[in-house]
Design brief:
Elements (H helix, E strand, L loop, with lengths): L1 H40 L5 H13 L2 H12 L4 H10 L7 H26 L2 H9 L4 H12 L1 H16 L3 H7 L9 H10 L3 H27 L1
Subcellular location: Cell membrane
Protein name: Molybdenum transport system permease
Pfam families: BPD_transp_1
Length: 224
């Protein structure tokens, strides 16, 4: 009986964390790619201020990010009410809330990595393509993305690793419901709180292995 409880408690947060991280990273990656592409070529008054806002989740305490998300997406907000009325969905204490939280905190890493990759692409190649009649989308798809492919891969991996380790913002908006919103970090916290060090060590070891592997792959992609 004890083995079954440990097994269930071990696999459920891992499975949910992987699902949440994949969904969150995909969202943050697509948004980050479009924003980084525009910002890498843009020049306007206040650009530094805008980019500072983009990077805020990287330095703000996760609990602050979670609180802001709770206010913006909660049932008393117009976004939360509209989502409930039009689509019958809720963010609070739901897996969707965990996905949004993970996407927000992973976005700055993805954005910065993608922007750096785009800036490394030779400007003359882009200008040459434009001179031949290529539109901006064609330049992005056929010139920039292939040449910045390693940065794209590194951005996705780093974003996934960050989403996998998200704790504070997830706790604020999604809570800790086993089998529903309990991710690896929250499961570790409550396992320690309950004195279940065996489960805490098992989840910690799994997280370290996953994170180490992701960082190793990312480093090789950027250095090769």
């Amino acid at each position: 009986m004890r083995t079954f409880e440990i097994s269930t408690s071990f696999w459920e947060p891992i499975t949910l964390s992987l699902q949440v991280s994949i969904a969150a990273t995909a969202i943050a990656f697509v948004v980050g790619l479009l924003v980084a592409w525009r910002m890498s070529a843009a020049s306007f008054y206040g650009k530094t201020l805008v980019e500072t806002v983009f990077l805020l989740p990287l330095v703000l305490p996760p609990s602050v990010v979670g609180f802001i998300l709770l206010v913006v997406l909660g049932k008393n907000s117009w976004i939360g009410q509209a989502a409930d009325r039009l689509f019958n969905i809720s963010f609070v204490f739901q897996p969707l809330g965990a996905i949004v939280a993970a996407a927000v905190v992973s976005f700055p890493l993805i954005y910065q990595t993608l922007k750096s990759g785009f800036l490394e692409v030779d400007k003359h190649l882009k200008d040459a393509a434009r001179s031949q009649g290529a539109g901006e989308w064609q330049v992005l798809i056929y010139i920039v993305l292939p040449l910045a492919s390693r940065s794209l891969q590194a951005a996705f991996i780093l974003g996934f690793a960050r989403a996998l380790g998200e704790f504070g913002a997830t706790m604020m908006i999604a809570g800790n419901i086993p089998g529903r919103t309990q991710t690896i970090p929250t499961a570790i916290y409550f396992a320690v709180d309950a004195g279940n060090l065996q489960l805490a060590w098992a989840l910690t070891g799994c997280t370290i292995l996953l994170s180490f592997g992701l960082l190793l792959i990312s480093s090789r992609l950027r250095n090769d």
